[in-house]
């Protein structure tokens, strides 16, 4: 099965001349199988079309922002109405207050909200607020956890200096003893403890948070006066209509949000508890586009969908259907796969696949059949997906396992991947 790709190849060639490496960041396809398109023409509901007109059921959802479906009519209408009135004006529109009110009423631990543009803005602000609140320096993060692309947290050290991370200490996710040890090492200089809502590191099996670990993080923060921060940028609203750690009954002091809170319109947020309000109000953070009104209006409409629709139950149900189906198909074709994390944010890795060549082979077969999956990053379901979409994905999976078996002896490791994995800092 061959996809046409001439438009994509032409664009890549033009891009190489005017964009470093032709593309950069997490949406570069340099580390994906060759069949993955780099450029897309349009998206609607649960589907994407590449620039050559090939259509895909999209299990990446823009790496998270698409929660209710691309071009959601009600959310887009709210954004379009605001667009007619004004967007990046000299000050925010009233939707800023409405959006903050809605987030504060939805998220149990939150008493206030601040808005920014990217998840990294929110995590960096959380770090600054923890330092301002405590007057201390050390920040504990879990080894391998992603908190963004700023010098203090980027997984790729190029362009950074050791001092950018001088006050970071690491622990192992879900390992309370290692958390204790990191906190001990920080001594009387601990400003904050970062926690991913669940372990969703790239290239590794996902795991849900253990309640004992989350409670220990809360206790340690309380005992030391440090702030507990949940980075809900990726998982926010996908596990709960609240902070994701509400699922283990632990309230952080700060939580970071982004990606899906406005269903793809560019906005992120930092939410906080009363005790951190004064520190939050004293740091200087801003940006030319942070207060633009269109994304705020889209955010208000998105939260209305959160409150009134069954999106969460639906994505869980469809995710479970996909997981069960893939488990059975993999067995039929004699492959051993591991499906980890919440069903609505699935990650699929193959056993005995240290250089990921088998996962790459299967993912490439899926993409050739119009199902956009990822070989090493967690995926996302969106509420625009239907039972028929999951059936289509399972049909394609059946054929893809078959093709993988037939091509098994020809699979080879991806040339750039090994070097990249080696260069990753944590
Ligand atoms: N934290 C987490 C958990 C994320 O998944 C991401 C984005 N993948 C970020 C922070 C950074 O968000 P952004 O790319 O919007 O800066």
**Average of the residue pLDDT scores:** 97
- CATH-level-4 superfamily name of the largest domain: Type I PLP-dependent aspartate aminotransferase-like (Major domain)
Q: Which CATH class of the largest domain? A: Alpha Beta
Compute the number of strand runs: 13
Strand proportion: 5-15%
* CATH architecture classification of the largest domain: 3-Layer(aba) Sandwich
Catalogue the ligands: 4'-deoxy-4'-aminopyridoxal-5'-phosphate
The CATH topology of the largest domain comes to Aspartate Aminotransferase, domain 2
Radius of gyration: 22 Å
Query: What topology, given as strand order, has the largest sheet?
Result: 4-10-9-8-7-5-6
Shape assignment: globular
Kindly name the structural category. alpha/beta
The share of residues in helices is 25-40%
What's the number of domains? 2
How far apart the termini lie comes to 38 Å
* Helix-strand pattern: HEEEHHEHEEHEHEEEHHHEEHEHH
What does this structure look like?
With about 425 residues, the protein is an alpha/beta fold. It folds into two domains: about 5-70 and about 310-425, Aspartate Aminotransferase, domain 1 (Alpha-Beta Complex), CATH 3.90.1150.10; about 75-310, Aspartate Aminotransferase, domain 2. About 40% of the residues lie in helices and about 15% in strands. It is built from twelve helices and 13 strands. It has helices at about 5-20, 75-85, 95-105, 120-135, 175-185, 210-225, 275-280, 295-310, 310-330, 355-370, 385-405, 415-425, and strands spanning about 40-45, 45-50, 55-60, 110-115, 140, 170, 190-195, 225-230, 255, 270, 335-340, 345-350, 370. The radius of gyration is 22 Å and the shape is globular. The structure holds 4'-deoxy-4'-aminopyridoxal-5'-phosphate. The site of 4'-deoxy-4'-aminopyridoxal-5'-phosphate has 12 residues, from helix 4.
């Amino acid at each position: 099965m061959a996809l046409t790709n001439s438009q994509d190849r032409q664009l890549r060639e033009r891009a190489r001349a005017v964009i470093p490496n032709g593309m950069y960041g997490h949406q570069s396809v340099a580390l994906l199988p060759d069949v993955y398109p780099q450029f897309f023409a349009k998206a609607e509901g649960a589907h994407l079309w590449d620039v050559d007109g090939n259509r895909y059921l999209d299990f990446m959802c823009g790496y998270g922002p698409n929660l209710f479906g691309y071009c959601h009519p009600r959310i887009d209408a709210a954004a379009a109405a605001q667009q007619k009135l004004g967007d990046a004006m000299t000050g925010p529109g009233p939707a800023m207050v409405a959006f903050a009110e809605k987030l504060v009423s939805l998220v149990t631990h939150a008493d206030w909200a601040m808005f920014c543009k990217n998840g990294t803005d929110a995590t960096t602000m959380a770090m600054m607020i923890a330092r301002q609140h405590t007057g201390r320096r050390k920040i504990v993060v879990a080894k391998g956890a992603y908190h963004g692309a700023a010098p203090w947290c980027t997984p790729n050290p190029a362009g950074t200096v050791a001092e950018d991370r001088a006050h970071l200490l690491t622990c192992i996710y879900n390992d309370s003893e290692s958390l204790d040890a990191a906190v001990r090492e920080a001594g009387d200089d601990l400003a904050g403890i970062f926690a991913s809502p669940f372990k969703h590191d790239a290239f590794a099996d996902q795991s849900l948070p253990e309640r004992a670990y989350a409670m220990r993080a809360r206790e340690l923060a309380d005992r030391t006066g440090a702030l507990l921060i949940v980075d809900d940028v990726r998982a926010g609203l996908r596990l709960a209509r609240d902070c994701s750690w509400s699922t283990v009954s632990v309230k952080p002091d700060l939580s970071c949000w982004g990606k899906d809170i406005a269903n793809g319109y560019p906005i992120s947020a930092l939410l906080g508890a009363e005790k951190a309000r004064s520190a939050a109000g004293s740091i200087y953070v801003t940006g030319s586009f942070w207060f633009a009104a269109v994304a705020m209006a889209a955010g208000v409409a998105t939260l209305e969908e959160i409150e009134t629709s069954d999106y969460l139950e639906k994505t869980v149900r469809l995710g479970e259907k996909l997981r069960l189906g893939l488990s059975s198909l993999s067995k039929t074709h004699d492959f051993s796969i591991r499906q980890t994390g919440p069903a609505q944010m699935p990650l699929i890795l193959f056993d005995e696949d240290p250089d990921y060549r088998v996962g790459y082979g299967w993912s490439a077969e899926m993409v050739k059949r119009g199902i956009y999956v990822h070989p090493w990053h967690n995926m996302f379901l969106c509420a625009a997906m239907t039972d028929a979409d999951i059936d289509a994905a399972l049909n394609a999976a059946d054929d893809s396992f078959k093709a993988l078996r037939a091509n098994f002896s020809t699979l080879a490791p991806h040339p750039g991947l090994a070097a990249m994995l080696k260069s990753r800092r944590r």
